[in-house]
Structures are given as structure tokens and as C-alpha cells.
Amino acid sequence: MIQFDKFALDNGLRVVVHEDKSTPMVVVNVIFDVGARDENPQKTGFAHLFEHLMFGGSVNIPEYDEPLQMAGGENNAFTTNDLTNYYCQLPAENIETAFWLESDRMLSLAFDEKSLEVQRKVVCEEFKEHYINKPYGDAWHKLRGLAYTTHPYRWMTIGKELKHVEDATLQDVKDFFNKHYTPSNAILVVAGNVTLDKVKELADKWFGSIPAGDKYNRDLPLEPQQTAPRSLEVRANVPLDALYKCWHIYPRLDRRYYITDLITEILSGGGSSRLFQALVKEKKLFSNIDCSHYGSTDAGLLSIEGKLVKGVNMQDAEQALMEEIIKLQEEGISEKELEKVKNKTESMMAFEDMSVMNRATSLAMYELLGDANLINTELESYNSVTRDEILQESRVIFNENNSNTLYYFANN
Amino acid sequence: MNRTIAPVIKDAIEFELPLKLYDKYILDNGVEVYAINGGAQDVLQVELVFYAGNSYEEKNGVAAATNYLLKNGTSTKTAFQINEHFEFYGSYCNRACYNETAVVSLHTLSKHLPELLPVMKEMITDSIFSEEELETYKQNTKQKLTVNLQKCDFVANRLIDACLFGETHPYGKYLVAGDYEALTREQLQAHFEKYYVHGRCIIFVGGKLPDNIETLLNQSFGKLAIGPREITTFVYPPVVASQRKLRITNDPEGVQGAIRIARSFPDRHHPDFMGVMVLNTVFGGFFGSRLMSNIREEKGYTYGIHSYVQNHIGETAWLVSTEAGKDVTEATVEEVYKEMKILREELIDEEELLLVRNYMIGSILGDLDGPFHIIGRWKNIILNNLDEQYFYDSIKTIKTISAESLQELSQKYLQPDDFYELVVI
Fold first, then answer.
1. DSSP H stretches of helix in A128-255
2. Cβ(B420)–Cβ(B160) under 8 Å?
């Protein structure tokens, strides 16, 4: 059970406090309710580029990192298709430095042309390093584009193309800040060696005077139900053929999300999982195979991807994979298998909760979903899943008309 | 309120950093166990560290293959059954092979420990290395290698180590497809018998430990033929490359170059080691370092650039590593040398030095969070044949080393002629 308190400031900023006296540190985590799904389709990659610019100085403080490091702190941030999260950890005695820094960049950025120019280049190098200069690096760009016709999940967080990042202007930066980086679109989580009273005092002092701004109302186009299978063939200079398949699943808050999550564990969560055992160990058609999903807020994708053993025919590999899926759809799973994936879920959560940093980030993400207390009720949701639900859902999700397939062939 | 004025801080160098002392047990066969009991979650980790790394193998790849296949079948259990057993209890049994050591580790909810230790025992005493498992391993690791060989960073990491230590040295050698093909069951079994079944083993445990942890460990591991014995180590004199500057085109369509600039460097027992840890932080060891500030934050040549001393037990290496845009690789190399020159010629100013001291202390303070991290720190100290004084001396060095001493270290070690320089596109 993870204890926490919540309160809100008049300007709409929500604050969550988690006290843990066993650590000398404190974590200050600020999450903004904006991700790549909120971008203009002609200006993708912007939420992430913006995350970089948040370190380029704020209205009253020329440098974010230096004062934090001077206070013995470390920080980082990440952007997803759903949200942008900033976190720092520092000795509890210096907690006010974090409030000073975080509140100033929520108040306003420096909007410095030089910082934009440099970070555009940095992000372009990040784009190249992870998505262009790596074999198969473009697979997920193509797969998202295939699976989504309408919803903004059709592009990756890093952006659809380098050019979108290269073309970002200072005006874009200002507009984005004013629209999304307001107290009412943010949640502050403070965790570690701190008291609720202290956080109330500091939050009021540093964040209380920030103008509320407008609450951003998200109105994203819904992805229409897929009605026929889709596929795409790619040829590239990679050494091995690879197969990627994905299927539409449910939003994060849908009860069926938990069923789906356990299905991915059954299919590929470890050395005794079904796909690994059947396709890598017994039939030796794939050299690796993984089943996963992103846990996205809106309806996401469940994917299976693997590299074929050299010499194996793509159709044979796909057919063998589908035989495993059909087996699941026809026979379901055993009680022991269900207990296994529930036990795994229980221990995974216990390990995640070990670090105060993880607890802070989880609380922020759950509060953004609507309720920080989900951190305490998740396990129960998983434990309530039945064998029959897994059977039924495997029939719905793995329906052929819901499938998207990318055949990634090696040249020569 | 004036937002331009920073709140008063307590300098992190004023903090005391106590390293919680371990409990130590000796099992019946003499195996040493180091334990840190603590934490709020009911979880724990067990690490069995064997001196069975690639320094001890007779043919390339034998140590890694032996270590990997410990989970792939014993005389009574198939690979599937072993995996299923650990996964049923929601636990993770992993293995990893390094230069000197090879590890079998367990992460689990504390309550399941009694069900899991006996299977770990079986893995380290009764693995069979079947022909079929070995063949699958060869095929899949070779496939993985062909994918990795397309990546400039992977290729650069292999080549720079080979330059620094030579291709016959454990730190410098790397595997080619032919090495995997040549592996045999007999080689693996021999390595297993000598370095696991009759090997030298140290055990590290951390987390919420059951009261009878010592008894449980003794039941599973205390009667085995493993022990604290000294084993013969091989001496590998480094064979350094003669050519200092290398440019390699690995992928003609590549859009980035992997840059590695590296020199050999003494081990942790050398008197300069701790000072260089501070100097390295200034140079390229954290986000606010000279290299990051100049090459990423000022010029935008790269997503990240770092310098670090490789984590080896023996004589090691100090290197700078980055992936930069293809058209700016040479400019990046030049900037790295410029930063070395500045460190040799100019004193680090007190403000920057205080920032680095505070950052390093704060970082260690944050890293001592929880029993896993604390036992991890002890493991590093013990495996390097050091003691807690080393930890406290490092803290003292961070707090007190002078700008003059850092400049002397720069003049001694940051000499371009001593570095290998490699760009792989």
C-alpha cells in the first residue's frame, strides 16, 4: 500500500505528496498532459522537441541544469505519445531549489532562438541515432502508419519525419507553451523525505502565483474500427527477414486492458512463454520473438515481432505464429498459466515500487489517468481476470480483420 | 518574491555518506556470503558470482555460452521446466558473463525463496549442455551478431577495445561467427566442471531477507564443491595496436559516425584513480560536463557525448564515446581534443568544481537508495579487492581535490598522443 495525499492550488495545479522518511532524497516530478498525439499532423515530433527546450532556460533563470547540479541534484525527462514527464532528485535539504526551477519554467520559458537552433539539431541526431541509423529502425513508423488511419498515434513520438523537426519555429514553441504548459494541465508529485505541510507551503509559494491559463480540451479524431486485414511489404539492407504484426486493443482505463496485458505475458513474458517455446525453441523458425504493447492512454496496439531464422520462408513463419494464436483462441489457457502471469505481475509491481523515483513517476501517471490511487488497486484488477475472459478477448483481438502485418524482407 | 534569486542550498559536500555495513556469513564449505538486509518491499536478490568469465576460457565464446546455457537443461529438468519454475513464482533468474566473473542471479518476492534456491543449485551443479540447446544458441547468437554488425556503435566498441588491449586479451577480444560455430559441448562441460562445479564462488544477497537466510543458503550451496579457493589466473599482457587513428566505413548509407577516443588507464588501486574520477566528471561524465556543454548543448553535433573509465578489475581504459552526424564527425573529434587542451592549460574554476563536487556527492547519496544498490556497491568494492576505506577515500577525494591537482592529472593523462582515435560510419 502506497500512502499519499492530494491537494490542488487555485490555479488548477494538482499536487500529490508521498512521504518516505527512509531516504535522504526527495523527488520532484512534474507531468504535463500533452504528448505527440496532441500535435498538428504537419508539425509532428514537436512535443518531444519542446521537452528539450524546457532545459534551455526559463524567464528568470538562464540555466536549468546548473543550479540543480549545484544543489546535488540530477534530472531527466521523457515524452510519449500521451504525456511529457520531468523529474529531478536531490538531497531533501535542497528541495526548494527544485520548486524554484520547476515553477519558473512553468511560469514562462526564455524562448531563446539559439536554444531552439541547437536543440533542433540535437533532436535530429537523436532521430538518426535511433530510427535511421539502426537496422529495422523504421519498422514502427511504418507499422503505426499502417494500423492507424486517423488517430494521431499514427506517428511516433520522435516525429513522422526529420523535416518536421527541422522546420520548427520560435512561434510554434510559444504557441505550444501557452496552450499546454499551464498549471491546469500539469500535476506535481513530491516524494521522499518531506512532509505534506512543507509541500503545501512550497507549492503555494512558488506555483501559487502562476496564472491558471486555459485548460486544454483534447478532442482527438477517433480511429474507426478496422474492417479488413492490412499488410505492407518492405525491403531494406538488413541481414534477416523480420515479421511484425499488430492488432488494435483497448484504452488504458478499459477493464479489458488488464486482460490484454496478461495475454501479452502469456504469449511472450519469458523463457516459458508460448511463442518463445513453440517458435524459437521447438520449431526454430524465429531467432527471437516478442509480444508487447505500449500501455497507451487511448486505444493502443498489441504487437508481435520477431526475426526469422535464415532460410525460413515468411509464409511458414507467419503460419506457425498464427497456429499458436489459434490454439489460444480455441483452447484458452490453464489455471496454472493464469496463476503464473498473475504472480509475475505481482512481483513486477513490487520491484517497480522499490525506488522512490519510480513511485513518484507512477503516482503522476496514475493521477494523470484520473486517480493516483490506481497505484494501489492495479494488482486487484489483474487478479480479477479470469481464464474465460482471456479466451473471449483472444478471439476478439486476434480477429483477422483487426490485424496489420509488416513483412520486412532483407535485400538479396 | 524575486524569482531570479536561487534559494539557499546546503552544499552536498557537507553531507555525511555512511555506507551501511554488510552482514557476512561463511557457509559450511567456506563460501562467503555478503548480505544487506532492508527495504520496504518484500523482495530480495541473490547473486552467485563465479570466477568463470572469459578470462578463463580456452576458446573464444566458451565462457559466455556456458553461462548462458546454465538455464537450458539439467539431468532432471528441461529448459522449459526451469523457466516455468522461476516464472511461476514471478521471479527472474538471470545470468551474465563478464571478463573475470560470471553471475547467476535471482530476483524474487522474499516469500518464494525456499522454492527457488534448490533449482539454482541444480543449474550450477547439474547442467547438461545438450547438443540441441547448443545448436539453437549458436544459430540465434550468430543471427544477433549479423544484425549488430550493421550498427556503427557496436562495431566501434569492438574495435576500440581491440586497439587498447589486443585481440587476444580478455578485454580486447571479440567474437566472430566462426567462434560460435566452433563451440562444442565438451568445451562447455569442461569449463562448467572447472569454474562452476569446482569453482570459486562468492554470494551477495540484498533486500528483505528471511530470518533463516543463512540456513537456506547453506542448505542449497553449503555442501557443494564450490569454495573460496584461489584459482589460477592467466596473465594477458596488453598488445596494443600500432595505428593510432582509424577511419572505417561499415555502412556506406550510414548517416552518423560512432566516435571512440580512448587511452589505457590503471586499475582502481592506482593513486590517481579517484582523482581522475572527478576529472572525468568535469570532462565528460555528466550532463553538465565540458564535452556535453560544448558538443551537444552549444553545437548540436550529437544527441549525447560521454567519457568514462571502463569498469574492469585489471588495467583498464579511459574513453570518450559518441555518435555524431556524418558530416560533423571530424569537427567533433577536434572539439574533444580542444577540451583536453583547455583542461591541461587552464585551472577549473572554483564554481564549476564545487558544482561537480555537489553533483557527485548528491548522485552517490541518491544511489545508496535501497538494499539492492547498497549490496551492488559492496560487490564492486569486494570484487576489486578493496575495502570500505576505498569508498570513504573516494568521498574525501571528491570533497577536497584541488583544481591544481586536477590540472596535473590532465597534463599527465589527457595527452592526445596517448589516445586511439576511431570513427566508424
1. 139-147, 162-166, 170-180, 196-207
2. yes
Grid coordinates given for B260? 571512440
Q: How far is CA B88 from CA A270, B73, B96, in A?
A: 11, 17, 22
What residues 183-242 of chain B have any CB closer than 8 A to a CB of chain A? none
- CA-CA distances (angstroms) from residue A225 to A259, A403, A405, B80, B194? 20, 11, 17, 38, 60
Do A307 and A238 form a contact (C-beta atoms < 8 A)? no
CATH 3.30.830.10 residue ranges of chain A are 5-207, 230-410
What phi, psi does B2 have (nearest 5°)? -105, 110
- Which CATH class name applies to A5-207? alpha beta
Dig out the grid coordinates for A70 from the structure: 549545484
Identity of the residue in A74, A119, A309 whose CB atom sits nearest the CB atom of B366 = A74
Across A177-190, average pLDDT? 96
Distance from CA of A303 to the nearest CA of B (A): 21
Type of residue numbered B48? L
Laid out side by side, the sheet with A84-91 consists of A5-8, A14-19, A186-192, A25-32, A84-91, A74-79
Say which residue the cell 577515500 belongs to: B393
Write out residues in chain B with pLDDT < 50, as ranges. Answer: none
- Cβ separation A135–B369 shorter than 8 A: no
Q: What is the pLDDT of residues A196-234, one digit of tens each?
A: 999 999 999 999 999 998 889 999 999 999 999 999 999
Backbone angles phi, psi at B330, to 5 degrees: -70, -40
Residue B164, pLDDT score:
93
* pLDDT per position as a tens digit, A314-362: 999 999 999 999 999 999 999 999 999 999 999 999 999 889 999 999 9
Mean pLDDT of A300-324: 97
- Determine the residue of chain A that is closest to B145 in CA distance: A239
3-state helix, strand, coil in chain A (%, to 5): 45, 20, 35
For residues A20 and A11, give the distance between their C-alpha atoms in angstroms, rounded to a whole number.
27
What ipTM was predicted for this assembly?
A: 0.93
pLDDT at B233: 67
Work out the widest C-alpha separation in chain A, in whole angstroms. Answer: 67
| B55-80 residue pLDDT tens | 999 999 999 999 999 999 999 999 99
Give the right CATH number for A230-410 from 3.30.360.10, 3.10.105.10, 3.40.50.300, 3.30.830.10. Answer: 3.30.830.10
d(CA A20, CA A26): 9
CA distance A94 to A99: 10
- Which secondary-structure segment (H or E) carries A235? strand A230-236
Q: Which of A39, A51, A265, A367 is catalytic?
A: A51
Percent of chain A with pLDDT over 90: 93
Nearest alpha carbon to residue A32 among A218, A163, A201, A191:
A218
Best residue of B3, B155, B364 to probe chain A, by most A CBs closer than 10 Å:
B3
Nearest one of A206, A55, A271, A52 to B92, comparing CA atoms: A271
How does DSSP classify residue B50? E
Q: Which chain B residue lies closest to A346 (C-alpha atoms)? A: B90
Asked if A67 contacts A141 with a C-beta cutoff of 8 angstroms, the reply is: no
3-state class (DSSP) for residue A115: helix
Of B365, B425, B363, B360, nearest in space to B399 by CA:
B360
A51 is catalytic: yes
Alpha-carbon span A215 to A184, nearest angstrom: 6
Per-residue pLDDT tens over the stretch A82-133: 999 999 999 999 999 999 999 999 999 998 899 999 999 999 999 998 998 8
Residue that is written with C-alpha cell 519542446 in the block: A50
Contact by Cβ (8 Å): A240, B146? yes
Where do the domains of chain B lie, and which CATH numbers do they carry?
23-221 (3.30.830.10), 245-424 (3.30.830.10)
Q: pTM for this one?
A: 0.94
DSSP letter, residue A243: E
